[in-house]
Design a protein that fits this description.
mainly beta; Porin; 16-stranded antiparallel barrel; two-stranded antiparallel ribbon; 18 strands
Length: 454
């Protein structure tokens, strides 16, 4: 199966290269279309859509044992599909209303279990939710000028920001249903599972246990101050009632996620971001679960049996991206969170470090193509690793026991522009110590992706 997919994509890439890469005349070339359908130039209205289909597979790998939450050691493959319709309207000069509908279907390999750095960011962590369309985002954005009136700067229009220019100094306020990582911990190289990397802990900071339901969304309020060289933003958001849950706790005196980020742009080629967060929720303690198991009160370590409302999990992170004079874009991320409190909303990572780079295809006359490579190393706290070694289950991990080693992942990809808004990608990931277990793996995962922007 995988060889057929590779062959089809290879032929498609060669054909698109022949078509798009033919010799241009001496006139200035037109900007290539990057959407299937033309979009109006007016910045009052927005209507667009996207489709992302990802195929992944792996062959058999070394595994002397497996648990209920293990990555399956037999060869397997899976296909995921996400489509989204984005819409928005500007009301006056300062207010935007945004409304997005989405559907997520298919599954990930092993139903997204067995890896902290899972291989496909598009996979819903509870595939039993089905493919029924849902409201992904519905929010209001208000922009308030600060400082000298009339001073504006160009802005890139998109489905989350409609204006083509904004005040140079401004306050932006957003409220409604949103994804925290649409606005926090962004990175030019490693934040887009549609055209770049697909691993959870490369596209996002694995130690950032940001407030979200199973699908990655929450209800919240974001306030941001932007100046020419720096920005500051903060967010209050709802937490799920249970780990990896779909229902929210609406009483913010009982549960909430708080986030703050500072961003510094000393030059157009260099950006630094520093992040801090704390979550208040009905979370468990690894130490309490282990103590209850050791005393014989619990037959196995059970984090769910030792949850307490109002427990706090906190963490910090940072990332940088830098574009060299040769046009190579580089990035690095680091993160850490408090290790005794249960991993709750994103993934089971207590510390992480990643680096990577990408390059555009203009050097080989494929201006909209891109190739990238990244490496991430994820780790667990002492309590978290001991909980898994004793046979405890997290919402993603649980091999039945654990010979701990850091989970290391190498990912590479090549994305080719085929026609207008149609892109194809081939790539691969190699995971050493899957699920932090030195007894299992390594495993190589092949991937192919089709992305369409309408």
């Amino acid at each position: 199966m995988r060889f057929a997919v590779v062959a089809v994509l290879t032929v498609a890439l060669h054909l698109s290269s022949a078509i798009i890469g033919r010799t241009q005349d001496a006139r200035e070339p037109e900007r290539p279309a990057v959407t299937v359908l033309p979009h109006a130039d007016s910045d009052r209205w927005w209507l667009s859509g996207q489709l992302n289909v990802i195929y992944q597979s792996h062959g058999p790998f070394t595994s002397p044992y497996e648990g209920p939450h293990s990555l399956k050691s037999d060869g397997e493959h899976a296909v995921s599909r996400v489509w989204t319709v984005f819409s928005g309207v500007r009301v006056g000069k300062s207010t935007e209303l945004l409304f997005d509908v989405e559907s997520a279907g298919g599954r990930g390999i092993s139903d997204a279990l067995g890896l902290a750095g899972f291989t496909n960011l598009d996979v819903v962590r509870n595939p039993d939710l089905g493919t029924t369309p849902y409201i992904a985002r519905v929010m209001i954005r208000v922009t308030i000028p600060v400082g000298e009136a009339g001073e504006t700067v160009p802005a890139s229009r998109g489905p989350l920001a409609l204006a083509s220019e904004v005040p140079a100094r401004r306050i932006e306020v957003r409220a409604g249903k949103l994804s925290v990582v649409d606005f926090f911990d962004l990175n030019a190289v490693g934040s887009d599972s549609h055209l770049q990397f697909t691993n959870w802990t490369i596209d996002n900071n694995g130690a950032f246990d940001y407030a979200a339901d199973t699908r990655g969304y929450t209800y919240g309020f974001i306030a941001e101050y932007d100046a020419p060289a720096w920005s500051a933003r903060l967010c209050e958001a709802l937490m799920p009632k249970v780990a990896n849950g779909i229902e929210f706790e609406w009483d913010m005196s009982r549960a909430r996620g708080e986030n703050i980020e500072l961003e510094w742009r000393p030059t157009s080629a260099f950006t630094v971001r520093a992040l801090a967060y704390d979550n208040h929720a009905n979370m468990g303690s690894y130490r309490e679960a282990l103590d209850a198991f050791a005393s014989g009160a619990d037959p196995a370590p059970d984090i769910e049996g030792h949850r307490r409302q109002g427990r706090v999990k906190y963490g910090v992170g940072g990332n940088v991206d830098y574009t060299t004079r040769a046009g190579v874009r580089t990035f690095g991320r680091a993160g850490w969170n408090s290790g005794d409190t249960e991993s709750f909303a994103y993934t089971e990572v207590n510390d992480t470090l990643s680096i990577g780079a990408d390059i555009g295809g203009s050097r080989w006359r494929r201006g909209l193509d891109r190739a990238g490579v990244a490496l991430v190393s994820n780790g667990l706290s002492a309590g978290h690793r001991e909980y898994l070694r004793a046979g405890g289950l997290g919402f993603l991990l649980g091999d039945g026991t654990l010979a701990y080693g850091r989970e290391a992942i190498l990912e590479t990809y090549y994305t080719a522009h085929a026609w207008r808004g149609v892109f194809g990608t081939i790539g691969g990931q190699v995971i050493d110590h899957p699920g932090y277990n030195r007894d299992r793996g390594p495993v190589a995962v092949f991937g192919a992706r089709m992305h369409v922007d309408f």
